[in-house]
Amino acid sequence: MSTSNSEQIVSIPAGPVFLEGALHAPGGGSGIVIFSHGSGSGRLSPRNQFVAAALRELGLGTLLLDLLTEEEDRDYELRFDISLLTQRLGHAVRFIRDNSGTSTAPIGLFGASTGAASALRVAASMATEVAAVVSRGGRPDLTGADALNRVRSPTLLIVGGNDFGVIELNESAREGLVNCECELVIVPGATHLFEEHGKLEEVARLAGDWFVRHLIPATSSSG
C-alpha cells in the first residue's frame, strides 16, 4: 500500500486475484462510498472520478477500484458477468471493514451502468453493511427480481431524461425495490453518460445529498 496526497493505492484480495484501487479515507464520523464501475470502465473513469471528488468535498471517503484485472478486462463477456462483479464488490466491502482506518465507517455504493446491478446485489446480500446505494444511468434490471426484493438500503436511481429505454428499466426496477426507501430522479436533457453541460454536476449534487443524508450521522452533519 502506498500513499500520495491522502490517497492510498491499495491492492484488494479477491479470491485468486488482487484488485487495484484508490482509497481516500473519510473524515471523522463520515461514511465511505465504494464505486462499482460499468462495463469497460474502471477506477480511472473521469465521470466517476468527478463524482468521487465532489463527495470528498462533503467529507465523505471514496474507494475507486477496478473490478476486473487488466487481463480479465480484455474478455468482453466478463464485463457483463454480474455475478463475478458482485463477488468482487463484496470483497471490496470486506476490505473496507477489515481496514483499521475505515472499519467503522458507514458504507455507500455508487453504481454506474452495469455496475448498478452488482451494487444492488451486494446491498441485498450484505444488508447490514451497506447503508445507501446510488445508481447513475444504471441497469438495476440486471439485479434480478429476488435480489431487488431483498434490498433494504436506501436507494437513489438517477437517469438521464434522454436516456430512452434505460428510463423504463429503472422505472421497472423501482417497482421491485419494495422493501427500502427508493427514489427515481430523471435529469432533464441528459443522455446516458451525462456529458451535457452541467448534467454530471447535477449527478454529483444528487448523490452527495443522498450519501450525506444516509452516511453521515446527524450529530456530525449538524456540527
Structural summary, described in words:
This protein is an alpha/beta fold. It has a single domain, classed as Rossmann fold. Helices cover 37% and strands 24% of the residues. The protein has helices spanning 46-57, 70-73, 82-98, 115-125, 145-150, 166-176, 199-215, 218-222; strands at residues 2-4, 7-14, 17-24, 32-36, 61-65, 107-112, 130-136, 155-160, 182-187. Strands 1-2-3-5-4-6-7-8-9 form a nine-stranded mixed sheet, sandwiched between helices. The N and C termini lie far apart (33 Å). The model is unreliable at 1-5 and 219-223 (pLDDT under 50).
List the secondary-structure elements in sequence, H or E: EEEEHEHHEHEHEHEHH
Strand content: 15-25%
Described by strand count, sense and barrel closure, the largest sheet is: 9 strands, mixed
Instruction: Provide the spatial order of strands within the biggest beta sheet.
Output: 1-2-3-5-4-6-7-8-9
Summing up helix and strand content along with how strands pair, one would put the structural category as: alpha/beta
User: Helical amount among residues, as a percent range?
Assistant: 25-40%
